[in-house]
Design goal:
325 residues; three-stranded mixed β-sheet; 12 helices; 77% helix
């Protein structure tokens, strides 16, 4: 009787140890990326290379002219230069890895490298959320309190706001990345995405991920929804102030100074919020990749064009730089 009870117990214990062994064997992932499109690898390589160069050149030009042109030595352009720098780092977390995978067809990535990529991507994304909120506050002060603008947005205040935006994402996203990668992965080691992002990583986890999903929602509410509410508050007051201006010319001029920023905010927050606030059951590889492409690559490509083509000061500074060369 004792022997018959002992055998199943020993067998169950052996299976548990074996299962634990299987869980711990995941030491690297496979980024599937665009491997389902084998005939388009060359075209994808060319497209991503061109987009990456456009982003690097466009944002570098904005940084250069805001440093060199005396007419752009204003808080608005100081924050724009910070935003352009942030965009270069943000895109460089994902695009070089995409190109590497396409060129070498080596899609393996270690768990540590995957965690590092996710951490930097989330940190820079958080920084961008807070910096967009700071830029909207700058426009609010400039339009709603123009007489106090030089006093409120002084050099020290601008530096503090920019530094706060850059540093805000570090503790939050390091904590979230450690929390996510503390899970065991046993379903598969294949990530059906072109970079290490939260939704596809959660799909590989063993057991339930409800607690981790809830933690993601909480973090998104803090780092994205809260800054977005600040942006909405700023722009509601800006629009109310613009509508009270006596002349149509004055209203057009005031709105032109913030329309570019508002368009960038809609592009970034719209696609990012849809990606991270959807429940796990609504995620599909195709939709996730499309949305991620939009806010990780397409939006950063258009941002320099939006800010330059819709801003007369930036266009004038670019012309001056080109003529000097």
């Amino acid at each position: 009787m004792t022997q018959t009870l002992t055998k199943p117990l020993l067998q169950m214990k052996h299976e548990d140890v074996e299962a634990e062994g299987n869980i711990s064997t995941v030491i690297q992932f496979v980024l599937l990326g665009f491997s389902s499109l084998p005939n388009l690898q060359g075209i994808l390589s060319a497209v991503f290379s061109i987009i990456y160069m456009i982003i690097l050149i466009g944002n570098s030009l904005i940084i250069l002219i805001t440093r060199l042109d005396p007419t752009l030595q204003k808080p608005m352009y100081f924050f724009l230069a910070n935003f352009s720098s942030l965009e270069i780092f943000y895109v460089s977390v994902t695009v070089p890895r995409i190109l590497f995978n396409i060129w070498t067809q080596d899609r393996n990535i270690s768990v540590v490298a995957c965690a590092v990529q996710m951490c930097f991507f989330l940190m820079l994304g958080t920084d961008e959320c807070f910096l967009l909120a700071v830029m909207s506050y700058d426009r609010y002060v400039a339009i709603c309190n123009p007489l106090h603008y030089p006093l409120v947005m002084n050099q020290r205040k601008c530096t503090q706001l920019a530094a706060g935006s850059w540093l805000s994402g570090i503790p939050i996203q390091i904590g979230q990345t450690c929390w996510i990668f503390s899970m065991h992965f046993c379903n598969s080691n294949k990530i059906d995405h072109f970079f290490c992002d939260i939704p596809p990583i959660l799909k590989l986890a063993c057991g339930g991920t409800l607690v981790h999903e809830l933690s993601v929602y909480v973090v998104v509410m803090v780092v994205a929804a809260l800054p977005f509410m600040l942006v909405l508050t700023s722009y509601s007051k800006i629009i109310a102030t613009i509508l009270r201006l006596p002349t149509a010319k004055g209203r057009a001029k005031a709105f032109s100074t913030c329309s570019s920023h508002l368009l960038v905010v809609v592009l970034f927050y719209g696609s990012g919020t849809i990606t991270y606030l959807r429940p796990k059951s609504m995620h599909s590889p195709g939709t996730d990749k499309l949305l991620s492409l939009f806010y990780t690559i397409v939006a950063p490509m258009f941002n320099p064009l939006i800010y330059s083509l819709r801003n007369k000061d930036v266009i004038a500074a670019l012309r001056k730089l080109i003529l000097q060369k």
